[in-house]
Predict the structure of Transcriptional regulator, LysR family.
Amino acid sequence: MDLWQLKVFVNVIKEKSFSRAGETIFLSQPTVSSHIKDLENHFGCRLIDRLGREAVPTKAGELLYEHAMKMLQLQEKTETALSHFLGHARGRLTIGGSTIPAGYIIPRIIGPFNRRHPDISLSVMTRNSARIIEKVLKGDVEVGVVGAKSTSPQIQQEKILKDEMKLIVPAGHAWSGLKEINRKQLTTVPFLARTQGSGTWDAVTRSMKKADMHPDRLNVIATLGSTAAVIQAILNHAGVSILSPIAVADEIQHKRLFALEIEGLNLTRHFFVTTHSKRTCSPLALLFIKFIKACYKTPEI
């Protein structure tokens, strides 16, 4: 048994899935299964049961999970303490990012952050905004960057970037030459929605309700689980959608997609650095928060 096997085990329990755990720690599902089998051989008992599509701990697994969490936390604290004693920051930091931050905002600063702190390794977990906030609440990640405002008193958020969402249409669409449409026009075309929990979709529906326009009036032909899927559907003329221009900057530059305003609809939102209000951030997390705030200190970036 080693600490890496325990980390694999802990991630399977947290994610309730071998495949999702593998995605989180960048391992294939067979490799994850092999590590779990080695642990079960070591302890001589079954640690995880597969119930339908979920992986759940046995009673022995629950006991191991409790102690494994303590061991992994102690490992992290030990490495951090020694690094600070030696005068430099070193270690691994897992950051949670919703779709736009994980795909476009955080990657922009990984290079500069690595040059400033070469001994800190970043791992970016991608989920929708609701799931990332949930991960922060549970203590699975220290820092999240999301596009949705949380109402939980246990969540602390700070704006780092303003986002002006737009209606996105493909080249050749009847509206591709326009700068703006009205709200009534929006209800006349096939619309591509995001799943609940998406920060983008939450911001869209909230803006529509403030403008006395119920989202049910949209002609939603598909609800998709990622921004990338929405973009591909628009490019293939399945419909239109409201997205962050950050996600389609390249397509807009090359005139494959076009961005329009919607009259009477305020589609401004912000991205937030998100932490737990009751937990003290580690030195590595504080370094990352300070760095990303400095990089995006002007809200128009």
Observations:
- The chain has three domains: 1-87, 88-163+268-301, 166-266.
- Residues 1-87 form a domain with the Arc Repressor Mutant, subunit A fold (CATH 1.10.10.10).
